[in-house]
Design goal:
Aminoglycoside 3'-phosphotransferase, Chain: A, domain 2, binds magnesium ion, single chain, alpha+beta, 373 residues, 2 domains, 43% helix, globular, binds 2-acetamido-2-deoxy-1-O-phosphono-alpha-D-glucopyranose, Phosphorylase Kinase, domain 1, three-stranded antiparallel β-sheet
Length: 373
């Protein structure tokens, strides 16, 4: 992303931010929105903000994201106040108003921008280095889920329709095979057969769906780098990137944690032999998550968490593969085969999960308080 400073300053001038602008730099590793870290000098102190341009190809109604984020953060702030949690501004995101009192700014091209206060003294990681990080980040997502357990699902907008609808993702994948607009499928027959082999995961899910999993307000993008960790204590501080907070099922949030916490490599690493589901990291993840949620989740949810991991890793693999076939229209790419490598990487992770599924089930049972006398 190329930063045009005068344009950035122009956008920022609409928001209620005081002091003197210092600089703005591209930030983070998101594939969708343009994100900048912006610094201001306020009364001698440097203060950081996150400025984001919302991707309107992906989010058809960006206003809905801003409304959801506002409602969800207000709800969490109230919950934290009730339990007298200290240091509130670092435990929940703060949205900044523009000078008209709204929480987004429309530019002359019709793009939506919003500004968030950067969480002070926090950092993120793109892959997990140790069990402590896995525990802390999963625990932060567990708390996030717990605080939202009494948020009215009818009051939360659907920001992307069918986002984690695996049947629909398979349909889109099948359509991409038919259209094959860039003649890319000729080179990848084995990968396409492999993808089809995993359709059984959707059949398993459909059988389960009839047993009704509760609809909750879920995050839907529970990547490891969407949790801010405390620089000094390494504790989970705050869950960020609330764009896809929507009514959903817990299996998806659990699944995306397994996807992004347990592999030692990044989702686009090209040495697929290094891609593995690491059991000790999975153990810490389950412990951190269920410590918060054991009393909130149903037996049916807990008993199917491992299926959630398979669902999300498979879904992500075919999302990357579909985007490769369609010519990289959705995810930002840095080189021609980027989406293809991402897909291969995710299929390697899925194979590793399949191999260790029994062990994973045992770990979930170990930390679950269900079916125990
Ligand atoms: C996208 O916001 P970002 O770039 O972290 C995507 C997620 C994928 C992820 C893969 C709205 O997330 O669903 O899991 O890339 N977000 C959207 O890294 O599609
Ligand atoms: Mg996101």
């Amino acid at each position: 992303m190329v930063t045009n400073i005068s344009n950035t300053k122009n956008i920022l001038s609409n928001f209620k931010i005081y002091g003197d602008f210092i600089d703005a730099k591209p930030f983070g590793s998101g594939h969708i929105n343009d994100t900048l870290l912006v610094r201001y000098k306020q009364a001698g102190q440097k203060v950081k903000y996150i400025l984001r341009k919302i991707n309107s190809y992906v989010f058809k109604e960006p206003k809905l994201i801003v409304e959801n984020t506002l409602n969800v953060t207000n709800h969490i702030r109230n919950r934290l106040t009730q339990i007298s949690e200290p240091d509130l501004s670092r435990k929940v995101l703060t949205l900044i108003q523009n000078k008209n009192g709204s929480y987004f700014q429309l530019d002359e091209k019709g793009d939506y921008w919003n500004v968030i206060l950067f969480i002070k003294g926090a950092y993120t990681v793109d892959s997990v280095d140790n069990i402590e990080q896995a525990y802390e980040a999963a625990n932060a997502y567990g708390k996030f889920q717990k605080y939202l357990s009494d948020f009215d699902t009818d009051k939360c907008h659907i920001t992307i329709k069918n986002f984690h609808n695996l049947a629909n993702r398979i349909k889109t994948f099948e359509e991409s095979l038919k259209h094959n607009p860039k003649n890319r499928i000729e080179d990848i027959p084995e990968l396409i057969s492999l993808a089809k082999k995993y359709y059984y995961i959707n059949d398993e899910f459909l059988k389960l769906e009839s047993k009704k999993l509760p609809t909750r307000i879920t995050h839907n993008d529970t990547k490891i780098n969407n949790v801010m960790l405390h620089k000094k204590t390494n504790k989970g501080l705050c869950v960020v990137d609330l764009d896809t907070v929507m009514p959903g099922i817990i299996l998806n949030d659990f699944g995306d944690m397994v996807r992004t916490f347990t592999s030692p490599t990044l989702e686009d690493a090209k040495d697929f032999s290094k891609v593995k589901m690491r059991l000790p990291i999975f153990d810490a993840l389950v412990k951190g998550y269920l410590t918060e949620l054991n009393d909130y989740l149903t037996d049916n949810e807990i008993n199917n968490l491992v299926l959630g991991a398979k669902i999300i890793v498979f879904e992500q693999a075919i999302r990357f593969l579909t985007d490769f076939i369609l010519g990289d229209v959705y995810y930002k790419v840095e080189y021609d085969l980027h989406n293809l490598n991402r897909a291969k990487n995710q299929f390697a992770l899925l194979a590793s999960i399949e191999e260790q599924a029994d062990e994973m089930e045992k770990i979930v049972k170990k930390y679950s308080n269900k079916n125990k006398i």
